[in-house]
């Protein structure tokens, strides 16, 4: 097909996280000979998906001592391969679901598939400022996280002041959740009002462990002199007055939303207003019969490895 190497398959799986690999393990064991495209830095995430961007995963059953995210995804991949799933480290850039069999394209391959499982996940949005990154001088995964539910219970946050950036329902939920662990939680919001639902706001305002830093953005994260390379605090700028204040915290959680990886679909299946694939309630069926969606690409509520694996 147009000079591309062409493959025919019963099932093509797009993605590389727990949803994609669970689907691959089940399909391979059912002798459907699935082809899986794990992407090559698709959405700037390594093959393996979001878990490759974190350290210890402590809430995935079967690993009582926790497991590194990268090791867990390596295990998923090995298990898929063990049962014969064929894995390509390429990103699917285009699809054609207008007729059966379905067609999918990477830069070098075309796939003709009877069925498709979309498991391309989502990306937790992050902010960039001095100290927010990885490596030397940055506190990503050393105090800064984009997932309070995943990381909030870590010992470095216990009994310490914490902060959340955001103003929507997730920010309210994450701040409330973090009060179980932190000594107090500051929500930093760039406006003078939240867009979260009223009930979520009320819960936050009624919680004595939460305070709100209105009209403010974080301009810098700095380290804790005593504890080496972990987060010690933030420089927070009031966008109205221009004043910069110091906020001592041991944890900072971005709760500014996720972006589902659905652009490459070009409208081939129905998406909701936030860009997530719409599935029929209680199933993984999309608007196109024979095309299924699993994991975070169709789930903006639970967004956990175990739920992604469950739908896969
Ligand atoms: C920092 C952080 C820490 C987390 N910690 C935990 C935790 O401790 N416990 C927990 O349960 N959950 C945790 N999560 C959430 C968990 O990682 C996700 O819920 C889960 O990984 C979602 O799995 P998924 O299969 O939907 O896909 P994802 O993990 O989102 O992976 C999908 C992957 O598919 C690939 N892809 C995307 N587009 C294409 C394409 N067009 N072609 C080919 N490949 C493509 C990319 O590599 C992409 O990353 C964490 C998330 C983050 C961001």
TrEMBL record:
Cofactor binding comment, as recorded: Binds 1 FAD per subunit.
Q: Which domain of life is it from?
A: Eukaryota
According to its UniProt entry, the protein's GO biological process terms are: cell redox homeostasis; removal of superoxide radicals
Broadest EC class? oxidoreductase
Q: Could you cite one Gene Ontology molecular function of this protein?
A: thioredoxin-disulfide reductase (NADPH) activity
Q: Which reaction(s) are listed as its catalytic activity?
A: [thioredoxin]-dithiol + NADP(+) = [thioredoxin]-disulfide + NADPH + H(+)
Keyword field: Disulfide bond, FAD, Flavoprotein, NADP, Oxidoreductase, Redox-active center
Return the EC number: 1.8.1.9
**Family label:** Belongs to the class-II pyridine nucleotide-disulfide oxidoreductase family.
Could you tell me what this protein is called?
Thioredoxin reductase
* Source organism per UniProt: Brassica campestris (Field mustard)
């Amino acid at each position: 097909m147009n000079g591309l190497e062409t493959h025919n398959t019963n099932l093509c799986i797009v993605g590389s996280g727990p949803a994609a690999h669970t689907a691959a393990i089940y399909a391979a064991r059912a002798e459907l000979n699935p082809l899986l495209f794990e992407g090559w830095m698709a959405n700037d995430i390594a093959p393996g998906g979001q878990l490759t961007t974190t350290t210890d995963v402590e809430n995935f059953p079967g690993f009582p001592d926790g497991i590194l995210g990268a090791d867990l995804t390596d295990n998923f991949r090995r298990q898929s391969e063990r049962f014969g799933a064929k894995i390509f480290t390429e990103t699917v850039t285009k699809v054609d679901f207008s007729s059966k069999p379905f067609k999918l394209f990477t830069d070098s391959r075309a796939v003709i598939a009877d069925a498709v499982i979309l498991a391309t996940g989502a990306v937790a949005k992050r902010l960039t400022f001095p100290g927010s990154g990885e490596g030397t001088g940055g506190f990503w995964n050393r105090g800064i996280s984009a997932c309070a539910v995943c990381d909030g219970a870590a010992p470095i946050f216990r009994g310490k002041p914490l902060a959340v950036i955001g103003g929507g329902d997730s920010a309210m939920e994450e701040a409330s959740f973090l009060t179980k662990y932190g000594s107090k939680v500051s929500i930093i919001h760039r406006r003078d009002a939240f867009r979260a639902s009223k009930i979520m706001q009320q819960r936050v305002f009624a919680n004595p462990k939460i305070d709100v830093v209105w009209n403010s953005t974080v301009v810098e994260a700095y380290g804790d002199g005593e504890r080496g390379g972990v987060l010690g605090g933030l420089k927070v700028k009031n966008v109205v007055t221009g004043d910069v204040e110091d906020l001592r915290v041991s944890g900072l959680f971005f709760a500014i939303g996720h972006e589902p990886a659905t652009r490459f679909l070009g409208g081939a299946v129905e998406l909701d207003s936030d860009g997530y694939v719409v599935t029929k309630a209680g199933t993984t069926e999309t608007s196109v019969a024979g095309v299924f969606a699993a994991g975070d690409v169709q789930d903006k509520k639970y967004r956990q490895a175990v739920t992604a694996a469950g739908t896969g």
